[in-house]
Amino acid sequence: MTRIGSFIGRHLMLTLGLLVLLYMYIPNFIVALMSFNDASESRNLYQFQSFTWDNWLNPCEPMGMCESLRVSISIGLLATIFATILGTLAAFALVRHRFEGRATMNLMIFLPMATPEIVMGSSLLALFVAAGMGGQLGFGTILIAHILFCLSFVVVTVRSRLSGLDSNLEQAAMDLYANEWHAFWRVTFPLVFPGILAAALLSFSLSFDDFIITNLNSGQTVTFPMFVWGAAQRGVPMQVNVIGTVMFLAALAIVIGGEVLNRRRARLQAAK
Amino acid sequence: MEAFQRLLGRNSAYILIGPAALWLGIFFLLPMVSLLTTSLSDPAGSPISGYQLTFRFANYAEAMGDYWTYLVRSLVYAGIATVLCLILGYILAYAIAFKAGRFKTIMLVLVVAPFFTSFLVRTLSWKLILADNGWVVETLKAIHLLPEDGRLLATPFAVIAGLTYNFLPFMILPLYTSLEKIDPRLLQASSDLYANPIQTFLKVTWPLSLPGVVGGTLLTFIPASGDYINASFLGNTNTQMVGNRIQALFTTASDYPHAAALSVILMVLIVAMVLFYVRRAGTEDLL
What we know:
The complex is a heterodimer. By secondary structure, chain A is an all-alpha fold. Chain A folds into two domains: 1-34, no CATH class; 63-271, Orthogonal Bundle (MetI-like fold), CATH 1.10.3720. Helix content of chain A is 76%, strand content 0%. The model of chain A has no long low-confidence stretch (mean pLDDT 85). Chain B has one domain (65-286): MetI-like fold. Chain B is built from twelve helices and no strands. Chain B starts with a helix and ends in a 6-residue tail after the last helix. The model of chain B has no long low-confidence stretch (mean pLDDT 87). The interface between A and B is large, with 104 and 98 residues.
C-alpha cells in the first residue's frame, strides 16, 4: 500500500500536472495551426481547410488590422513607461519608509486588482462623461485607463523584489565610502532591476491584451483586441492568428532569454 | 535606503508615493464616486450632455428587476469555473512546487507564457475546438457521452470551460507561491509518523496552502464574474452574463444610469462575498 502511495506521490502528480499544462496550450496550438489556414475558399472560418503561407506573407492584408496593432503597441509602450515609473517609486516608498497613510496606500494599491474590469471600465467612463469628455474618448482616455490598471501590478511586483532585499548591502557600500548616489545606482538599483523589468513586461502584456476596460473608453479608436472583437462578428481574418503566434513567440523568447542571461551571469559570478 | 532618503530630504516618502497616489485618487476613487452619482441620476440624459443627479434610487430596483437572472448566472458560472480552476490549478502548482525538480523555472514560465497570445484570439480558438463538427464533439458522440443532436458550443458548458481556461494562471501562481514555501521536511515528518499520503495532504499540505487557495480563488472569481468575452464568443443568448448587459447598456443603449447601477450592484455583491469568504477561511490578514 505504501509503495503504491509513494508511486502515486512521485509520478502521478507530475503526469497530471503536465496534462494540465498541455491543456493550457491547446488554444496556442490551434492559433498557430490556423495561421497557416487557407480560408479564401471557404465560408467556415472555424475549420482548417488547406495549408498556405499567404497569411504569414501578407499579415497586414485585412483592412485596419495593422493600424489597430500600431495603436495597441503605442498605448502599451506609453502605459508601461508611465506605470513602471509611478509604480516603482511607490514601491520604494512602501517598502523603505514608514509614513502616515501607508496602510491606506497599501489598500489603494490592492483595490484596483480586486475590482472587476467591467466595474473599473464603467466607473472611468462615468467620470469622463461627468467631466464633459464624453465626446473626446479615444487614445488619451485609453492610456489613462491602462496606466491605472497596470500601476497596481507594478507596485506589487517591484515591492516583492524590494522587500526581499537586504538593506545592509547599501549600508556596506556607504561604509566603503560610496556616496549616496553611488550606493543607490551601483548597489540597490541593479538588484531591483529584474523586478522592474518583470513589472514592465507584465504591464505591456496587460495593456496590449485589455479589451473590457478599453472597449468602454475608446470612442472611435480601435486597438488590436477591439479589432478582433469587431472581426469576430463577421468572421476573423486568419492573419489575426499570425499576430497571436508572433506575440507568443516573442514573449517566450524574451522570458527564456532573460532566464538564460540570468543563469549565465550567476555562473560567471560563481566562477569569479 | 537611508541613502535615498537623505537624497530627497525629510518628505521623501511623500514625494515617491505622491504621483501614484494622485493617479489612483483621480482615476480610481473619483470614478467610483462618479459611478455612484451616475447610478442615482435621471436616465433622461445623454452621454454628451451629461446626466442630472436626482437621487433616483428606482434605477437600482429597475436594474435588479430586469437583470437579476444575469447577476445570478454570472456568480454561478464564475463560482463553478473557480472550483474547476482550483482543482486543475492545485494539481499543476503542486507538481511544479514538489515534483518538477530542476524544471521548476521552465514550468513556471510555461504557465505564464500562453498569456501573451491575445486573450480574445485564444478564446476564439475554443470556438473551433468545441465546434459542432469538430473532433471533440464527434468523439463524445461516438462514445455516447453526448446525444446525436447534442452540441458543446453555445452552451453553458462552453462558457464555463472558457472561463476556467482563461483564468487558470491566476489560480496557479498564488497557489504555487504558497506551496513553494512549505518545508518538504514537514511532509517527511508526517509520513514518518505513519500518516498516509492522503492524511498528509489533508492535515499538512492543504492547511499550509490556504493563503494561496484564498488568494487564487479571489483572483479567479472576481475577474470571471465580470467577464463577458467568454459568454459572447462561446455562449448563446441564454448564457449571457452581467458584463454583457452592463456593456450593452453603456454602448448600444446609452442608458448610463441603469448601467452604472448594475455595475455598483455587481461590485457590492463581490465585496460582500469576498469579505464573507475571507472571514470564513480565517485569512483576514491577507487583505
